[in-house]
Amino acid sequence: MNKDRTLEAILWSIALPGFGQILNKQIIKGILFITLEFLVNVFSNFNTAIMLSFLGDFEGAANAIDYQWLMFYPCLYFFAMWDAHRGATQNRSKYIYLPYVFSAYFVTVGLMLSPKLTILGVNIGPVFMPMLFVIPGLLIGFLIKAILSVFSGKNTR
């Protein structure tokens, strides 16, 4: 498949885990991801926290969240994106999973630290703080991917 198809699958997976798999004609896997996303979302009260965060009620968002359930979300989310990417491309480049894996790790850490971390004295809560942790996760994932590619001597685009 072409790069547009890969991007389309990743973007649909960002919209809702499982949509990328359905686009890739992996219907059962897509339904499984959607079901898991629904369960984690409902039991963690994530939609309520998202709504409160966008309304600026970061304390209300933090109080609404069930952290034990929400900590499953980053790994589910980034695994679904990686799987949609992998399923949409013929180019199975080595180490492409690393940016997804490190993003999942960092977002999970960001979620755990969100009750205590502040930016300019403001706690931005359990929705926006973990989102900021995607940036170092991607950077470190791509850096390690590049380093491993040099040492393996193979094309890892």
TrEMBL record:
Keyword Transmembrane helix set for record: yes
Keyword Transmembrane helix applies: yes
Protein name: Uncharacterized protein
Transmembrane segments: 31-55, 67-84, 96-115, 127-151
Protein keywords: Membrane, Transmembrane, Transmembrane helix
Species of provenance: Litchfieldia luteola
